Amino acid sequence: MKAEMKCIERERQALLNFKHSLSHDFDMLSTWSDDDSNPDCCKWKGIECHNETGHVHMLDLRGQDTYLLGAINFTSLVHLQNMEYLDLSYNDFQSSHIPEVIGSFTNLRYLNISDSQFAGRIPCELGKLAHLQYLGLGSNYLYGEIPYQLGNLSRLKYLDLGRNSLSGAIPFRVGNLPNLHTLRLGGNFDVKSKDAEWLSNLHSLTILELSSLGNLGSSHHWLQTIAKLIPNLTELRLLDCTLSDTDIQSLFYSHSKFSTSLTILDLSSNMLTSSTLQLLSNFSHNLQELYLSNNNIVLLSPHFRNFPSLVILDLSYNNITSFVFQGIFKFSSKHQSLYFQNCSLTDESFLMSYASTMNSSSSLVTVDLSSNLLKSSSVFYWLFNFTTNLRTLYLLSNLLENPIPDEFGKALNSLEFLDLSSNKLEGEIPYFFGNICTLQILDLSNNKLSGEISSLIQNSSWCNKHIFNGLYLRNNRITGVIPESIRLLSELEFLYLGGNSLEGDVTESHLSNFSKLRGLFLSYNSVSLKLSSWVPPSQLSYLFVASCKLGPSFPGWLRTASSLFKLDISDNGLSGFVPEWFWNNLQYIDMLNMSYNNLTGAIPNFKLKLPLRPFINLKSNQFEGKVPSFLLQASGLILSKNKFSDLFSFLCDRSTAKNLAILDLSNNQMKGQLPDCWESIRSLLFLDLSNNEVSGKIPMSMGTLVQLEALALRNNNLTGELPFTLKNCGNLVMMDVGENMLSGPIPSWIGESLLQLIILSLRGNHFLENIPIQLCNLRRIQMLDLSRNNLSKGIPTCLKNFTAMSENSINMSETRSHIYCLGKLNLSHNSLSGRIPSGRHMQTFDASSFEGNIDLCGEQLNKSCPEDVTIVKPQGATNPGDDSTFYEGLYMSLGLGYFVGFWGLLGPILLWQPWRNAYLRFLNTLTDYIYVMIAVNVAKWHK
């Protein structure tokens, strides 16, 4: 017997249309059925209907562990005119705009679309929602001015526009909201105007947040208006407003009674010193939460003891003096959370006398001391004395060494979350962690811990096995096999054991009990995965098994892993064809690495959607034929060192959405002319087609890649002149078109339009005539290679103006300030003539930079010029050094992150002459590392 229909059919269809418009719902809408299995939409997850009319009046689709993905279609919801509550927060709607149709939902009382990747302007039609009481638009990518029509929402109680990029003047009509108790604003607003009276009209206001108002401190009128509000506020947040101690004094000095109401104060990311902390201690006896991170606080005085009600204190990212904890803090029974992340704290901070620790105790449950300079065990013993009820402890990214003290397991037996990662801890993994019955997550990654996992499992009671869900032991020195007894930890969601010296087999017996497993990291061990009959749990999202023994056959058990988010099966000894079902399983993929295998065949051009714009690395395989156009949906695509031969059908397919930022097709078998449809992927930041056999002219449409930062066309058969349209690519940092058959004069527009260039290589072509003087405008140039061409006439004397970087130790921040910093110059094997320009910098280049120019003379070549009177003395050649150090420097510099300009990569190369001289032989390799840095930047596009 069919269930009685309670919801209205047109509203049911509207909801189904909304669902179908999304790319993916990650099973969040699994109960929304378009068949007879669950026809009553009032029973669907996130839906609530009116008991009498059956109309949908609540739609709660707030994302949490799962979320909605795709461009949202608000129009499909217009039939839900009786809706009063709409929550779409914490989803990923991929830069969707808030449509004007939002104004048609006139019955709405609650609207929350914060943290959902919305972009564009705030529509003025929101002002039509006369019944609205709650409006949350925070933490999106909204820009432009706040529409004055929001002042019409007279019933509004909560307004959040914070953490966006809004600008212009804040409309005075916002002051016409008599019921507003919470206001959160953030953006580059104009607060220079003296008219801030609208703010003082908000008589019901109890919570005020203003963020990123860079000139707030310069507006005395604004500060006065805020000061008048303080006696009625319970929460005040003024973040990143360039406030000084004087500004805070003007806010609080005359309101000594404000402590009766204010319980939360956030002044993070300003320019405050210890004086502000002392001032607040006089007035804030009822303050419960105090956030002062990222200021200039150095010294904490004894006045700090005057916060008897404080529950949460955040002083992270301040350069606190080392004796901060030596009797300064007087913990009350209410103090629960302490955040001192990245405060330059040393061991001296925690050296306290025995007398000072007597009868000491606190109710601290959360302590964050990560990213400091702690080295010894002092901090552990400080914690043992003061934090008997500690539940969460962050000590990651310090310098902690030696074994973890045995007293740890007894003194901190209430821990639920412990992070000691990225230190220098030694010794065997303490077994007592398995005896902390409350422990849920243990992270000991990136240390020097040794021993075997079997000892940890066998010597512990694991009284917490029914709640323990995260074991992170990556990058230590753990040996032995992974014991089958690890399956006793049946609640594990994340098991990260990669980067150790584990060996042996991993079978179904190890993993079959992990029904909740979401992340498995076994990469860079010597284990063999024998999982032929393993059925991965449906929620498995992270799988990293790089450099494990998995092949040669493609793992069939991956067929049921249909929810993978990140997958690394690189260097697994896989060979043969990739089955079709694998590509169809990539619908949720964000990162795929299958590099360094022996996979073969053509990749079919499936009609496959990749909504997460993944980063895909198929490098060093034997894939061949056409590059399938569905891969254009990726944000990064590394296909180098394969046998791909056709670029046209891939690049010029206009039916596929293109988000590509990185494209590496170097070292393939590309032939024929480059396609002339580059305008279809204007999102490109990095393009490498080096070491192929493409011929003909560089197409004019390549000049439409205005965001391009790196262009590598090295070692092909390209002919003709450089197209003038490339001058539009003003963001280029590297341009390498060496080893081709390009001709004509070197364009002067290179030095006029490509002013961001750090690397320019035109070597091994047929360029002729003189070196254009405009190249001297390249103020960031570090490597200039014009060798092996037909250049003639003299070397421009302006090249001597480039300032040499010292080969000795140089402060990198000082180096970045140099205007002219040429590090490597090669003009060899041309037809240049005349004297090499003199100058201190030009003397740093040896004969290899100028050889092969018969009519060139100068000290570097030990060849006097005809007009010289004296003979040039011989100069000793500089030892080029071992090229292997060049590679080492590249790997070291990658740890500095995306850029630090391009300096993170190029700085170490240029500061030492052996690396500079090795550049010409390793320029092909250099591009590999540049795209890695760009890939890090591209990752910000992902959720």
UniProtKB/TrEMBL annotation:
Similarity section: Belongs to the RLP family.
Keywords: Cell membrane, Glycoprotein, Leucine-rich repeat, Membrane, Receptor, Repeat, Signal, Transmembrane, Transmembrane helix
Protein name: Receptor-like protein EIX2
Main location: membrane
Stored InterPro entries: Leu-rich_rpt, Leu-rich_rpt_typical-subtyp, LRR_dom_sf, LRR_N_plant-typ, LRR_R13L4/SHOC2-like, RLP23-like
Gene expressing this chain: LOC113866822
Keyword Membrane: yes
Membrane topology category: Single-pass type I membrane protein
Domain Leucine-rich repeat-containing N-terminal plant-type intervals: 10-49
Residues annotated as transmembrane: 890-912
Compartments where found: Cell membrane
Domain annotation Disease resistance R13L4/SHOC-2-like LRR: ranges: 104-314
Pfam family membership, one: LRR_1
Naturally occurring in which organism (per UniProt): Abrus precatorius
GO cellular component: plasma membrane
Keyword DNA-binding listed: no
